[in-house]
Amino acid sequence: MTDLLFLGIDGGGxxxxxxxxxxxxxxxxxxxxxxxxxRLDPELVWNSLLTACREALAxxxxxxxDLKRIHxxxxxxxAGQTSAVERLLSRGHPFASFEIETDAHTAWLGAFKGGxxxxxxxxxGSCGYGGTSGQCHYVGGWGYEISDEGxxxxxxxxxxxxxxxxxxxxxxxxxxxxxxxxxxxNDLEILVDWVGKAxxxxxxxxxxxxxxxxxxxxxxxIAIVEDAAAGLxxxxxxxxxxxxPAICLFGGLSEPLRPWLSPPVQRTIAEPMADALDxxxxxxxxxxQEGRP
Amino acid sequence: MTDLLFLGIDGGGxxxxxxxxxxxxxxxxxxxxxxxxxRLDPELVWNSLLTACREALAxxxxxxxDLKRIHxxxxxxxAGQTSAVERLLSRGHPFASFEIETDAHTAWLGAFKGGxxxxxxxxxGSCGYGGTSGQCHYVGGWGYEISDEGxxxxxxxxxxxxxxxxxxxxxxxxxxxxxxxxxxxNDLEILVDWVGKAxxxxxxxxxxxxxxxxxxxxxxxIAIVEDAAAGLxxxxxxxxxxxxPAICLFGGLSEPLRPWLSPPVQRTIAEPMADALDxxxxxxxxxxQEGRP
Lengths: 293, 293
Hints:
The structure is a homodimer of 293-residue chains.
Chain A: E1 5-11, E2 16-22, E3 27-33, H1 42-59, E4 70-76, H2 82-89, E5 97-102, H3 103-112, E6 117-122, E7 126-132, E8 135-139, H4 152-168, H5 175-183, H6 188-197, H7 200-204, H8 207-215, H9 219-241, E9 247-250, H10 254-257, H11 263-266, H12 276-289
Parallel strand pairs in A: 1-4, 4-5, 6-9
Antiparallel strand pairs in A: 1-2, 2-3, 6-7, 7-8
């Protein structure tokens, strides 16, 4: 077992991270690469992935040849889509074994080391995941258009909707609506043109502004943040109903939104035992133990 | 003045209608043509428009030569966008005069013959428009993504969002959520694939189903319809605040949603004096009186 190498990979839409450990768990090296949401072009994803992996190998004083000793686990955005995983693996892989799961699953594995519990990810999107006795469920996380309550994208889009209300006179203007409408020269045609080209991350960039204004007691900011927190709390409460004894928060918006969450959810928040990269390493170890290829 | 001809055109996304009257207001003929949202290809729009116009001319026993005697007015979806109007008129027009306004403006002109009042259009989209002393304002109507509260598209999208809640167990399932989820084989991946391709009209096709279930006291149906009606009522109340003494409803969803509107809005609902085609004819007459080209 001492010759075994375990590689954990965290594949996101903007970058890819890798961590190499030996069988005893000793850290051997880390690396980073480019975008690796596995819905992207497989060529691009493999390039990002191997860049991160080779950097980790080099830090460990290991070589290309050692790739075949590696048992790899990857948590990747987009891995819920079976066809995307199959496309990525259609030309094989250089590892001794390679297990792919969603980024939610590896974050959860790291957070609870496979034990009972749930995670709530809040960034540009939002997603709940967890359960008991290894039986996990997703709650939300089906994308910006009809899901992802409380996410940065949802907050930004709701902001622009309510700025139109303020512009029309349907609600009172506030410093927040004034600031946003001024960005668009108080011209809703310009705003609508922007919306026509906006992606979830573009909406999400407004979330910090909304949070700032809410902290300053801007009524519009407070209304939007309260709605977002209510949506997230509903996800959290469902995770608790499914039997999770604790919830770990992940994602760039989880810390600022945490004090706004419903007390029954807040009381269950725990620190993760390990991060998603170690969750991915655990994924690889579990697959090896279970004798999967 | 007796030789003058007035043509009213109603240009929508799916079809174009035209009505021809003489200076005394006598109906001479009507016609229909294809899609004429003026954001579409100008060639296509002119084709739809002239098809409708020639049919009206033929009914009146008139000919191609008479086009140049016609003072035309058109209310068109998309006419709020100046560049689209300019593109349509870039190669001139065959009429003695041609005035283009939004479909909301001609509906309003018809409804109140240019007097004080407001309209509320509720179809796939939603929009409020009206005012006093000829000073009109839009309230809402900035599109499905960040506006159009209470519209068919908004109702359908909210339905799918809440069906995910029911699927996750965040809310109780109801006959409505069961029926919709069954359409997608209870598989959220199939639902999300559908959403990826859905246009506002696709979401809007769920509105009648939601209304049916609400009338049967389905809790999910009621919650969605109440939200939609609250959004529309907020638009209506703003129109009243702007001085409109009455509101005329237009669009396929306005009748079923009417009983759900807030009583202060419901009490002001009036029947339109004339339709949008006669509003477009009035637009042409007013332009001629004011000596516009």
